[in-house]
Every structure is written in C-alpha cells, then in structure tokens.
Design a protein that fits this description.
The chain is an alpha/beta fold and about 220 residues long. The chain contains ten helices and eight strands. The protein has two domains: about 140 residues, Rossmann fold (3-Layer(aba) Sandwich), CATH 3.40.50.1000; about 60 residues, Orthogonal Bundle (DNA polymerase, domain 1). Helix 1 packs across helix 4.
Length: about 220
C-alpha cells in the first residue's frame, strides 16, 4: 500500500500536555471547593474533549449548570497557561519532517477545541507545514466518530486506505478503524500497550521514527 497521508492525534501523540491540563483542572477544582486528582489520573480523564473532561473530574452529582461554569473557568484558565510545561515529544519534529520529505501529507485531528488545536500547532510547530488541522468543531461529531478523519481524506484528495491514523488512545484506534485507515498506536502518550492492543491497533510503536520506517517500507 502506498500511504499518502498521516493523520495525527494531538495531545499524547504530538505534544505532551498532561501537566498543564492536570494543573489547570486541579486549580479550578480547588477554587470551587471540589476534590482534586493526581496528575497521573488525568491520563484517563482526557481524550474526549473538554466538556467530557470536566464531567469526569467534578463530583458526580454536580448539575449541568455547575458543570458549564466549571468548563468556562477551566477554558479561561487553560488559555493562559497551556504552554507552561507542554512540548512536543522527543523525535516528533524529525518524524514530521521525514514524512513530509518522503511526500506524505500531514494532518491533525483532535478532540481539543478547534482554536486551541490550531494554536497548539502554530506555537509548537511554527516551521512545519500541515495540510489540515482540525479540532472539535460545532456540527462535526468528535472522535471516535470517523467524520473528521473522512473529512480530512476528502479535503486532501486521498482514499482512507491511503492514510495512516496515529494516536495514543482507544478513541484514536476506534476513529482510524471506523474511517478505514491503518491505525498506529504510540507508547509515549497517555495510555498503555494493553489499551492499544485491545482496540486492535494495526501497529504499535515506541519511537516516532518507527512511523517513518513503516510508511516508507510500504511505499511500493
């Protein structure tokens, strides 16, 4: 198979953002008088969008109005601090450049809000050209729906089967599978090998350059 496009998840795949997400969330919880959570627990709280993150970390009986207030407070605080500790994982810049030099188009699909997603890419990858960058947008189902991934394939004029879908969670594997893309699970992110295996990742890698090796080995 000739792979022509690589579609990446953002948090836990391209960028390690766990510390900033967890600290912002815990500060919001503390200010509201709610229990806080260990940073490591956020590995399983994040990944399904900010509204779902808030629902997972606040007390279970909290009203929808109270959750909405928490979401607004978290979003405002996160906008001021998302770059304090977050950074691309080692090897990511080299991987992206190598894929692009080999002729692959690059895209990002995240459940992070669209403007946050775009800002992350502008800030952390200023010299890297991405052909499509989509976060969570009104009217488009979030992952694990394949809607965003299929939209990217159509926009870039490639077939889903010509795309690699790269991520670190079950949601990412489900998204790629549903879209008909080859799924690559990464071990440097928020989840572990078992989760990726249980959700049938086609390939599991421990270093970004392994993605390049696979993409190039299949260019026949």
């Amino acid at each position: 198979m000739l792979y022509r496009t690589a579609v990446f998840d953002l948090d836990g795949t391209l960028v390690d953002s766990l510390q900033d997400l967890a600290e912002t969330a815990n500060e919001m919880l503390a200010a509201a008088g709610y229990p806080q959570h260990p940073v490591e627990a956020y590995r399983y709280f994040v990944g399904d969008g900010m509204a779902t993150l808030i629902r997972r970390i606040v007390p279970p009986a909290l009203s929808e109005d109270a959750c909405a207030r928490c979401l607004a407070e978290f979003t405002q605080a996160y906008a001021a601090r998302w770059q304090r500790n977050s950074c691309p994982y080692p090897g990511i810049h080299a991987m992206l450049s190598s894929l692009q030099n080999a002729g692959l188009k690059l895209a990002v699909l995240s459940n992070k809000p669209h403007e946050f997603t775009r800002e992350f890419i502008r800030y952390f990858f200023p010299a890297q050209k991405f052909d499509a960058v989509f976060g969570q947008r009104p009217g488009v189902e979030k992952k694990p729906s394949p809607a965003g991934a299929l939209e990217i394939a159509a926009l870039l004029h490639v077939e889903p089967a010509e795309c690699l879908y790269i991520g670190d969670t079950a949601v990412d594997m489900q998204t790629g599978k549903s879209a008909g893309m080859l799924t690559i699970g990464v071990l440097w992110g928020f989840r572990d090998r078992r989760e990726l295996q249980e959700h049938h990742a086609d390939l599991i890698v421990s270093h970004p350059l392994e993605i390049v090796e696979h993409a190039l080995s299949c260019r026949c």
